[in-house]
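We treat protein structure as text, and this decision shapes the records that our systems exchange. This encoding replaces a full spatial description with a residue-level series of whole-number codes. Below, we set out a record of this kind in full and without editing:
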Amino acid sequence: MRSALSAAAITGAAALSLSLVPAAANAANAAPSPTTSRARSLSAATTEAGSWRPYGNTNPITSSSSTWRCASTETIAASVLAQVCAIRSPGGGSVQGAVIVRNNRSNLYSTTASMDLFTTSGIGLGDWACSSSGVGAHSWSVCFGRTLTQSSPVNSEGFAGGTYLGISSAV
């Protein structure tokens, strides 16, 4: 499951070649069932708690010195968008999974998020879930997994509010 938020579509600014892709255009990235998804293949006992970070009206990707690779944007509710990303630190030695949520509503929106992190050779590095949290009106929030030491390319698969977000590009 891979998805990316378009800064242009969401904030009117261009950002790291992200684009808003309608869900129908993402048919090749059809949603797996929760039991067959790579993100759900790890046992519940291995799922760690992720952590939410509010960003207000600051785009988390363009405000970061890390490299983010994300799947296309998915609509998880009216005026609420989400995407899953794999992140690599500026020095290249650390990686992290993330789910970005953009709330374009004029009121608070609560959602859950989850993601995994795998090497491109298929080695599972972890699975994280963020419990329900409110994303402020007209703002961004990100659910982050734990930062891991990893030099191999990785990607991330995720869900937000039960909506499959796809699989990110490798970073």
